[in-house]
Amino acid sequence: MKDLLKKFSMIGFLALFAFSLTGCGGGHDETWWWWGGRTPAAPTGVLATFNSPATITWNPVDGAASYNIYYSTNPDFTTDTGTKISGVDGPPYTIPDGTLEDNTTYYFVVTAVSSAGRESEASLKVSAIHATYAQADLEGSWYVTLFWTGVGDPPFHPGWLRMRVTLDAEGNATINYYELSDGTTEIPPGALSFTIDDAGLVTQGGDFAGNDSDNVMSSNKRLIIGTNTRGTIEEIRIFRKADPTAVFSDADLANKTFAFHQLGSGSEVGWVRGEGSIGAAGEVTIDSIADSAGGGTIPPSLTGTLSINANGIVSSTGDSFFRGVMSPDKTLVIGTTRNAEDTAYQLLVIQISGATFTMGDLAGAYAFSSLFDGESALWQYGTLTVNSSGDTTYLTYLDSTGSSVLPAGQTLSMDAAGTITNAADATFHGTLSFNKDLIVATFTATLEESPIYGLSLSVR
């Protein structure tokens, strides 16, 4: 009986001592002396960049003696099914060249491990791809949208150009369709060509103006974005590759939700953005809207009903000047329009919504092109990274003033619907695409002490 009481007293003492340590630390994991070490928190700020080789970075974790990295080509992998790299000392970690395949998307998570071997939960999942490019990636048919801001006289003035071109194996272009915002449809004489390097930079050649433009192809090789200066006019350019096997119908628009961003030039500068839905008969309902003037005027192209023909051309009963082009995966519409007086011009990007997102989906490396209008016009072009905590880092930058000074980093937030905000800039509003590879955003900036209104496209 006496021995039993001694054992009970010892157990009670150990429990009391453990409780004391727990009380000091505020949680049961602080009883490290008894349980063999506190379990570290999951790593944050994870970013994977794949520039052959791939580099994984994250924020160091208190109490971590080492880290494990898990990766897979399957986006639904777990730490049980992914390939494991164990015993990593700390960030950054470079995966040996040749381990991963080019032109393949890989997904990564990181865990922290204590000195006693206790492993944390996995970080948010992030992805990276190293795309390699060849001239063959340009071959085929492309829908091209050029949008112009600023003040100028013909042939360089606010407005837009929409056309369809076919590129042969050498990059020589045949223009199949051509329409300017002033109604001109006659194809101008002259040669036009494009070449691409192994990093995805696209160069325009031939007789047309604007050969100094900056353009980059997305890693999925279906989108090219860029910027250019034409006289006193600034330009954003969007090339969307056509798929000859894709067939479209009104069902591709029916019963969909969407987000939209619009930029205006000419006599009506500013941005408009919002969210809405399309009914079974193509009828549009706008659920939320905001604009740079502090109001919420619905663009005419998003009134009435939308319809689409077999080639993916979208039109609106509310706006006879609107024409959009739907992407082959049926998640994106890029369109242009103008007013009846031919004085105001709009670039409209519609993103079909409905996917679910985490901050890890935002993480990655992007190339961006931005266009502004206001008292002055401006374009921006460059590259940046975003980690899983939303922290941005600019890698390259150039704008139409000639400045190459890297902007300060920002911290972005994203909700489960893919809406991106910036606590430091209430004017910023972006949307991550359904396929998580394109960000479209509008915001207000300042140039020469005057507000300018911008639209930005960022592609992986």
What is the structure about, briefly put?
This protein has 460 residues and is mainly β.
Account of the protein in words:
- The protein is mainly β.
- The protein has three domains: 47-129, Sandwich (Immunoglobulin-like), CATH 2.60.40; 135-244 and 355-453, no CATH class; 250-352, Lipocalin (Beta Barrel).
- 7% of the residues lie in helices and 47% in strands.
- It has three helices and 31 strands.
- The chain has helices at 2-25, 32-35, 359-362, and strands at 47-50, 54-57, 66-72, 83-88, 93-94, 105-113, 126-129, 140-150, 159-167, 173-180, 192-196, 201-206, 214-217, 223-230, 233-241, 256-266, 270-278, 284-291, 306-308, 313-316, 319-326, 332-338, 344-352, 364-374, 378-386, 392-399, 412-414, 419-422, 425-432, 438-447, 450-459.
- The strands form five sheets. It has an eight-stranded antiparallel beta sheet, with no helix packed on it.
- A hairpin with a 5-residue loop joins strand 29 and strand 30.
- The radius of gyration is 26 Å and the shape is globular.
- The chain starts with a helix and ends with a strand.
- The relative contact order is 0.11.
Overall tally of structural domains = 3
Indicate the structural class.
mainly beta
Please bin the fraction of helical residues. under 10%
How many beta-strand runs?
Answer: 31
Determine the number of helices (DSSP H or I, runs of at least 4 residues): 3
Average pLDDT, rounded to a whole number, is: 92
Low-confidence stretches: 1-36
Largest sheet, in brief, is: 8 strands, antiparallel
Indicate the radius of gyration in whole angstroms.
Answer: 26 Å
Give the spatial strand order of the biggest sheet: 10-9-8-15-14-13-12-11
Separation of the first and last Cα atoms? 73 Å
